[in-house]
Write a structure and sequence with these properties.
218 residues; 2 domains; Immunoglobulin-like; alpha+beta
Length: 218
Amino acid sequence: MLGRKFLAAACAALFALSSVAPAAAQKKSKKQQQEPTTGAIAGRVKVAPGATPGGVSVTVRRGDEEVARRETNSKGEFEIQGLAPGTYGLTLRKAGLEVGRMEDVQVRAGKTVTLKDRLFLPVDDGAIAHIRGSVFDANGRSVGGAKVELARVEADGSFKKLDDRVSNSTGSFAFRLPPERARYRLTAKADGAEPAAEEINIEGAAIYRIALSLHPKK
């Protein structure tokens, strides 16, 4: 009788162990599956005044191999996920702007590398639009020291101020812009004169000239 009880107890213990082992293995396997194996790169691209940060092509490289490509949204933001851990390089391109590069970006599993405020694309001097103008008074004489404001004409007819200049001693001023098709308004202001405004269409990389004539306030 004692032998039978011992045998029953041993069988019960063995059954319990056989039930716990698969459960422990399953829990361990589930934990391994949940651990992330890839990382991500996110950032925000800033551009020169007059340019728009949207539509910048962001290419991710590993060595000489391209592994991913995205375009920035209207705010210049991008995020590229699913990157295996390792070292990457970035190349940023947009017409009218210089090509930007960043190297040695370290990606780790389960982490997002944030490059906010570290990416800037200046205007490419070899592929830009130049606005060159002069400010005159009602008698055709040059006006130095006049403030000239540059604004982009938006699709809804509103104006977005982009930059400003002060005319030099000969009344001259200049702006550099990306070659994208757009319409701009230039407004000249000076003490004792009514503001003078003119609009100009940019069609591509070229030199555009404009004259602004100030008239005395009534």
